[in-house]
Amino acid sequence: EVQLVESGGGLVQPGGSLRLSCGASGFTFSTYGMSWVRQAPGKGLEWVSYISSSGTTMFYADSVKGRFTISRDHAKNSLYLQMNSLRAEDTAVYYCARGLKDVGAANFDCWGQGTLVTVSS
Amino acid sequence: EIVLTQSPGTLSLSPGERATLSCRASQGVSSSYLAWYQQRPGQAPRLLIYGASKRATGIPDRFSGSGSGTDFSLTISRLEPEDFAVYYCQQYGSSQWTFGQGTKVEIK
User: Fold this and answer.
1) Would you give per-residue pLDDT tens digits along chain A (121 residues)?
2) Closest to B47 (Cβ–Cβ): which among A47, A105, A107?
């Protein structure tokens, strides 16, 4: 069974840092592009960041560029999101999502259950 | 950045009725990269349609997608109780992924 499990969320003060993790199982993790997508409380979905299957190409939404860093570890079948200089507007449930191979990771065919990040003093 | 605008914001229908949801892009979108997702309360999104009209694995055939260019639609032919949820369209282009703001399908 394909599974993505996020962890690492929590309460952090404005200006603080947090590292999210996403453990993958049930598929060959190293062959899929992966993304982080977030959802603020009661709001819609917002794409945050993408990393290619090889880990050599990364893209970011303008709202997080320069503050967030995406990475992956194939030996651990894990995806990460390092979040620095956090702001109140970063408060959201963060999902990791697998890119659909048929369309070069343009869409997302598997999602984790999400981890809540709350930025507040 | 391509902006996706979904309409209506809320659709109030009864089980068994037909639902038609719209997604309009601020500029042309590759049909290959247009998808629809369903999100039930407290759950992660689920891929329904990709490539504008291809059903994802395990999706019932009452869900269908169509459109091209800037206008796309998702149709649910006969609403089942489990279909009352929020639906999002999503596109990829120029190394950016964007979602529409969502359409809520609620029980009338």
Assistant:
1) 999 999 999 999 999 999 999 999 999 999 999 999 999 999 999 999 999 999 999 999 999 999 999 999 999 999 999 999 999 999 999 999 999 988 888 999 999 999 999 999 9
2) A107
DSSP 3-state assignment of A104? coil
Q: Whole-angstrom Cα distance, residue A46 to residue B98?
A: 7
Q: Do B44 and A50 touch (CB under 8 A)?
A: no
- Block residue for tokens 């190394």: B95
Structural element, H or E, at residue B40: none
Q: What is the DSSP string of A4-66?
A: EEEE--EEE-TT--EEEEEEEESS-GGGS-EEEEEE-TTS-EEEEEEE-TTS--EEE-TTTTT
